[in-house]
Amino acid sequence: MANIRPAGLSDEDTDEDDYGYDPLSGTLNNEDEMKNARKNTERNLQVAIQNGNIEEVAKIVNLDLHNEVNERLESGWTPLLHACFYAQEEIVQFLLDIDADPNITSIDFTTCVILVCTNTIANEATVYNIVSNLIERECLLNIGNKYGVTPLMKAILAGRPSVVRLMIDNGANIEMRDSLGWTAVFWAIHHNQAECLEILLSKGARLNIVDVSNRTPQLLADSHNNNEIRQILSRYSKNSEEDRDEIDNMEINNDTNNLTNWHDYYPGLRDENRPKYCYEINHLLYGMNCDHLKKIFDKKPIDLRKFLLLEDEDMVELGIDMPYERQRIKQGLHKFHMYGWKVGSVAGLQTERGSTYSMIKCVNILGNHLQQLYILEATLTYLLRGYGRIQNKIKYEPPDSPALRKLENAVKNMTSNINSIRKEINIMKKIHTRISKDSLKPVDLITEKTSSEMAVEIFTKLVVISSVSFLLYRAKGLITNMFYK
Known about the structure:
The protein is mostly helical and 485 residues long. It contains 21 helices and two strands. 20% of the residues are buried. Residues 8-28 and 250-257 have low confidence and may be disordered. This is Ankyrin repeat, SAM and basic leucine zipper domain-containing protein 1. Residues 1-31 are annotated as: Disordered.
């Protein structure tokens, strides 16, 4: 078992430590006496748990802790954390029965279930029973320690296939990542746990992912040279590619079925409403390595602007429950908004003066500009929102502060860029106004009239005909009367 001890405890029996001793008075002060008493209580509890002495544990909890079973000891650990660390099934059961909290963590955010899975000495049946008991008491499985390591990853490290299956069946997220960007699949490959890897992949774990060092599961497996792991990856990679191709074909067919005319590629061209660019969201999710969340946005569709301005509460409302997934989207959106613009992305007809402009070319450029302006407006809103959050911080900065100078330069550059875009828009507007006056409406934009439009047209014609007939009748009467007179 890993040599882990709670902070502040030692296995040494030496008496040479004079911690807490007051050399002036030659006695221990009250504070140090209390601290040493707490240390002794924790040490006695640790020994009792390690020996499986449930009667002694009950005695310490009753007399020394005054039945405060969730009280943190000198190290910051509770009795249940100790019991889980040593995988003492009966003592864990006893502590849970007297309302020990299964979700309490140590100072480094290590949970009870993580400690159980860390134990490599106890047999698998014991670990399985303890984890099952903790799950029944609603312990959290989708939580990591300060390094992002989850209970599932620890169970894989210890080579506990039955525990891995138990956790997944009870809602453990197989795609959570640690600080290295590793999912449970990476852990299984790195620690040569073929059976655990098989379970993960059979439950739908993804292989088309990379860690923070841009390594794929296949690349990691190649570096370990484990033939069994390679064979499993090869088998599931082939199945995954076939399934992915089938899904892609279905998505392409669905997208194609929604495109009936060429102007469907240009949102707002027909009805002149504000475009939504919803189809771009899937591309951004893929780039953020969050394409598995596509189903959520399919069920609750939003436009691109709202996606680019998503906040934590918005994502929770959509159904993105995992904090790490929300954080990944927020980081991806921040990178998107901070990405530099290139001149070619907003260049228009101004760069091709003297050339002949076709209608299709004008529409293409205009559609591109419309989308870029749409995104730029969202980015400006994002920046203004961020500026509003730091106003209270920067208002106390001195006038010559480097942060203020940097902010002023950024504002000047942004203002200059906005003015350049405004100039390009005015030029494009003049060109398209001239083209619109000189050109007839494209045939493809002349659509069949709806029944309501036809009804209005017929009613209008009837009113006009009736009015003209009435006027003619009245005119005939007037003319006849004039002749008789």
